[in-house]
Amino acid sequence: MDDDEIVTWWGLVIEGYHVTQERLMTEIAKRFDLAPASFDILVRLIRSPEHRLPMTRLAHEAALSSGGFTKVADRLTAAGLIERQPCETDRRITYAVLTDHGRETAQQARQACAEILRERVLAPLGTEMSASLAEAMRTLRESNSGDAETPR
Q1: Counts of helices then strands in the chain (DSSP H, E)
Q2: Distance CA 58, CA 42 (A)
Q3: How far is residue 104's CA from residue 8's CA, in Å, rounded to a whole number?
Q4: Is 82 helix (H, G, I), strand (E, B) or coil?
Q5: How do strand 52-54 and strand 82-86 relate by DSSP bridges?
Q6: Strands laid side by side in the 82-86 sheet
Q7: Distance CA 106, CA 138 (A)
Q8: Helix axis angle, 3-32 relative to 100-117, nearest 10°?
Q9: Which of 16, 24, 96, 106 pairs as cysteine with 42 (C-beta 3.0–4.6 A)?
Q10: Which stretches does DSSP call E strand in 41-136?
């Protein structure tokens, strides 16, 4: 594969992701008034045991700076979607916890996300190609993460 071909190929991957993600997040924002970072936080919490995670871990998993996460958490708290709870055994830890309203919103938004992905990803690609795409992206994530050695 020559230089131009591989750069073009990668550009198509990125463009396909961006246009699909933009459609997805626009629809989630329209239906639920959630910014992408807020949606991401709610989905992570709805999938977590007891619908709570330590705030520092949540910020790290969502790839947000401490300050950026604080702003998102403040907005989610003001909207009544999460609350901050101190850890009973370690004063240094504060949990982000979904409220009842937050659980309902997160469940509905996750369901809407799945519907949109069925339309925007599964319908054009099919189940087999979608699964291959997910596996390919998992492989790239693992081979290029900070913890993994760079392949030679």
Answers
A1: 6, 3
A2: 10
A3: 42
A4: strand
A5: unpaired
A6: 52-54, 94-98, 82-86
A7: 24
A8: 140
A9: 106
A10: 52-54, 82-86, 94-98
Count the residues in the chain. 152
Bridge partners (DSSP) listed for residue 96: 53, 84
Q: Are 84 and 96 in contact (CB under 8 A)?
A: yes
Note down pLDDT in tens along the chain; length 152 residues: 899 999 999 999 999 999 999 999 999 999 999 999 999 999 999 999 999 999 999 999 999 998 999 999 999 999 999 999 999 999 999 999 999 999 999 999 999 999 999 999 999 999 999 999 999 999 999 999 875 454 44
pTM higher than 0.90, yes or no? no
**Chain Cα centroid distance, residue 6:** 28
Q: 115 to each of 18, 35, 118, how far by Cα in Å? A: 18, 18, 5
Residue 19, CA atoms < 13 Å, CB-side half-sphere:
7
Structure tokens at 24: 């997805």
Helix (H) or strand (E) holding 138: helix 123-144
